[in-house]
Structures are given as structure tokens and as C-alpha cells.
Amino acid sequence: MKFSRSLSMLIAVVMVTSALYGGGWQINEHGARAMGFGGAWASRALDLSAMYSNAAGLTNMKGINVMLGGTLIMPSSKFKGPGAGTTVTEMESQTFFPPNLYGSYQINDQWFVGLGIYAPFGLGTKWPANWVGRSLSINSEMQVIAINPTVAYKFNDKLSFGAGVSILMGSVNLSYKPLAPLNEGLVALDADASTAVSFNIGVLYQFNDKLSVGASYRTLADVEFKGKLTATGMGAAQGLFPGGDGNATLPMPSNLQVGAAYKVLPELVVALEYQMVGWSAYEELKLNVPTGPPVPAGAGFPPQLVGIPLQRSTTQIQKWEDGHMFRFGAEYTLNDKIMLRAGFVMDNTPQPVDKMEPRLPDWDKKDLTLGAGYKVNEQITVDVAYMMILTTERYGGPATFNGLYTSGANLFAANVSYAF
């Protein structure tokens, strides 16, 4: 019985709480218009969410503009262990609402500046308190907020360039139960992220009134999470889990997006886009915690654990691969007030099959999107979108805890834009 394995996994939960929604722990949806368009936004970038997808698109925003909204995310997942008749466990229902807020100002015909605030990483999982995987995870919730000042320059009617810096900050709350015979106890972590910085650049080129291409790149940012470990309800073994300060540094991956948009008809625009996420930066996870006292002889623990601290620093090998997404979007202008949108996304998981766990059961995904925009007047536009992450299955996990995961999600987004 490897009691220390549970503790060594604890801070791993910090960054692996969003796979029920998207590849790894990244959130890609930060504007309803882009989401309804399948996220193929790097070559269009026609609203303020360009500060996330392609900073050069800020030159499309004349005068002063503000956009406010968010995305309602409702994931679901089930786990079934190996063997006939194994009980199926459902993840408890949760709803998340990462918000977004943007503003921009046109200085002159060439220079544009903006500020975006959104949550590029996060979400969470919550399993029943006494389920079979409680020694790996019960509750985990994380959010990372980005404050993204941006500047863009319009060289001419065809070529624009943009750049920005993202200041990242966040927090995490999580808990698990140790392995038997300590499974009546609870280990928890409350942690905050040290401020980290990433940079982004983008270029947008309009060949003619039909064809545009765009590309953007966002750099890797390593974020250190520091928090307080606490252990309660351990009975006679309480002294073996002194808790204390813990920390781990994990990557917020780089992103490359390249796409093209084409006006098939005066009313219809379609776009294709490729996105690569640099998950190969996640090679290992080092957890630093205070070393607890060694297991004493005669305390009822297995002999192989005598003399070994149950609480100690560890390193876990991850060796993820880069993620690849292919996006398709279409937008049809019905009249001078209404636009209709649809999209499709193929998202290949970066997670090796033997690394699947209830904290992060990831898989190849196919997403369908629908959206609409309504121009209330010359100043106000309302956009809404829906995304269905299709239910899918994947069998995997380490030899000590493998099984079949069945998961999916529904997302709803809305934004209101105001042009002064």
C-alpha cells in the first residue's frame, strides 16, 4: 500500500482540472462570435477577442470599443473500472463561467491599443467523496486569469501587425482521501499562483476583398503554484502528515494559430485554421513539500514503508506530446442585423494513454458549434454561441488505476459589444 503515492499526486491536480472541456488545461473560447465560428478566428479577428486569437485584428476596431461576456461550461464524465460488473461512477454536476472583458482605442489611422481580461486556463472536477478513485482526487478547481494589454499597427489596407503581453495569476483548491487504512482522512491544498508573463504576436493580411490570412503565436509561461497542505482525520497517523508549504512549477503552453478565410458569396464567409499547442513542454512534475517523519515500526503499516516518510517531495514523469487542432467556421449574413454561424473542431489529445487519471481524463475530441449575432443599432451588437463537445470514450490509465472514461460537455457563450 503506497500511501505516499497519494500525496505525491496532490499538486499534480493543480494544473489538470480542465480536460473534460478542452485539450490539457487550456480554455480556447473567449468570445461568442469566435466560438460560434468554430474558433477559426486568426484570419478574421473582427471583434475584441482578437486580443486572444490574433492581436493584429485589433486594427479592425475603429474608434472606442468595449465587449463584455463569458462562457457557461457544463462538463460531464463517467468512470468504469476494469472487469465485468464494475460500478460506473458519475462525476458530480458542476458549472463554470469564465468571464471576459475587452476594451480598445484607436489612436490614429495606424495605431490601436487594447486591454483584454479573460481566463485562458482552469475549470475543475468533482467526484463523490467515497468513490473508488478517492485516493487520486475528490475535488479540484483552478482558475488562471490573464490581463492582456495589446498594441496593433496598420501598415496599409492589406497588412496589420499586433503584439501583447499577458500577466497571469490564479488560484487552486483541491482535496483527496489517502489510501486505506487512512481513507477516512482528508488532504487538501489551497494555493495561489505567482505572477507569470507570456507574450503574443499576430499578423493579418487581406489579399483582396475575398481572401484573408492570419497567424498568431503565444509564448510558453511557467507558473509556480504555492500553497498550504493540510491533513485532517488521520487518526493515529496524523503526525505522519504534518502538511506545510508546497509548491510546483508547471507550463502554460505556447500556441501557434494559422488560418485563412474566404468570402464564397457576398453573404457567406468560410475559414480553415490549424492550431498547435506546445504540450511537449510538460515533461515532468516536481512537487516540493516538507519531509514528514518516517513511518515507525509497529504502527500497523506494511513493513516496506517502515522508515520512509509518507510526506516527501517527488517527481512525476509526464512526457506529453504537442496538441493539434483543426478548425472550420462559416458565417452567413442574413440581413443588415442578423448573422448566423456554424463550426467544427477536431482536437487531438496530447496526453499519453498511460497518464489518464480521474483528475485529467483527456481524449481526442470533435466539437460542433452554432452561433448568431444581432446588431441592435449602430453601437450595440449581441452575439451568442453554443458548443457541443461530443460524448466519447477512452480506456487507459496507469496499471494501478485504469478504466473506461466516457465524457462530454455543453458550452454556452454570450457577449455584448458597444462601439462609441
Quick synopsis:
With 420 residues, the protein is mostly beta strands. It contains three helices and 20 strands. The longest helix is centred in the N-terminal third of the chain and has 6 residues, at 3-8.
Model description:
The chain is mostly beta strands and 420 residues long. Helix content is 4%, strand content 53%. The strands form two sheets. A 14-stranded antiparallel barrel has the order 1-3-4-5-6-8-9-12-13-16-17-18-19-20. It has a two-stranded antiparallel sheet with strand order 14-15. The longest helix has 6 residues. The termini are far apart. The N terminus is likely disordered.
Task: Summarize this structure as a short list of keywords or feature phrases.
420 residues, mainly beta, Porin, 14-stranded antiparallel β-barrel, two-stranded antiparallel sheet, 3 helices, elongated
Layout: helices, strands, pairs:
Layout: H1 3-8, H2 32-36, H3 50-53, E1 64-80, E2 88-90, E3 99-106, E4 111-126, E5 139-154, E6 159-176, E7 186-193, E8 196-206, E9 211-218, E10 221-232, E11 244-252, E12 255-265, E13 268-277, E14 284-287, E15 314-317, E16 323-333, E17 338-348, E18 365-375, E19 380-396, E20 403-419
Antiparallel strand pairs: 1-2, 1-3, 1-20, 3-4, 4-5, 5-6, 6-7, 6-8, 7-10, 8-9, 9-12, 10-11, 12-13, 13-16, 14-15, 16-17, 17-18, 18-19, 19-20
